[in-house]
Amino acid sequence: MSNCDDNCGVNLKQANAAERRVLTIVLLINAGMFVAEFGAGLWSGSTALLADSLDMLADALVYALGLFALGRAAHWRARAALTSGLLQLLLGVGIAVEAMHKLAENELPDAATMGWFGVLALLANALCVALLARYRSGDINLRATWICSRNDMIGNVGVLIAAGLVGWLQSAWPDILIGLLIAGIVIRSAWAVIHEAREQLADHH
């Protein structure tokens, strides 16, 4: 029996080390893409790129909190998930406000910049989804990281569609609408994480 316990302890440590390594990699990918996309969004005047970059930042925060929660008690993991959900909700509302602000300006963004960085972000998130796929049915924090990356790919495709429509129609409306759509995805995902985290916290009281 003691040998089984020892082996289980070793396996758990190895699992935690593997999870920590994957979370660190996707954290660095998302932090780097946030900087790149945010700069591109400012340069091109694209609401969709700015929204997507803030989505990357939200994910980086989720991954950082996931790293914090690894190996901790269940109530700490639930609190970390709740915090990440609240941060995502705040950023989602911020994205929506930025999109509404652009409605008044109606400035035409640079479609080419949107397209190039949309492709780059899509490739980055596809890598994150592949790295996190094995954890999509596990701990709430790891599950939240996989959901975030999956939703980001939807946002990336949206940026590419917006870039094509902006170039074709010579209108800022596709960019603004996609920005609002990404905001909606972020807010919906954040609310789901918050709801599940609150249920888990209630179970431990």
Automatic annotation (TrEMBL):
This is Cation diffusion facilitator family transporter. Keywords: Ion transport, Membrane, Transmembrane, Transmembrane helix, Transport, Zinc, Zinc transport. One of its GO terms (molecular function) is zinc ion transmembrane transporter activity. It comes from Thiogranum longum. It is a multi-pass membrane protein. It holds the Pfam family Cation_efflux. Its main location: membrane. Coiled coil: none annotated. Gene3D superfamilies: Cation efflux protein transmembrane domain (1.20.1510.10). The keyword Membrane applies. Residues 23-201 form the Cation efflux protein transmembrane domain. The chain crosses the membrane at residues 22-44, 56-74, 81-101, 113-133, 153-170, 176-194. GO terms for cellular component: plasma membrane. It is found in: Membrane.
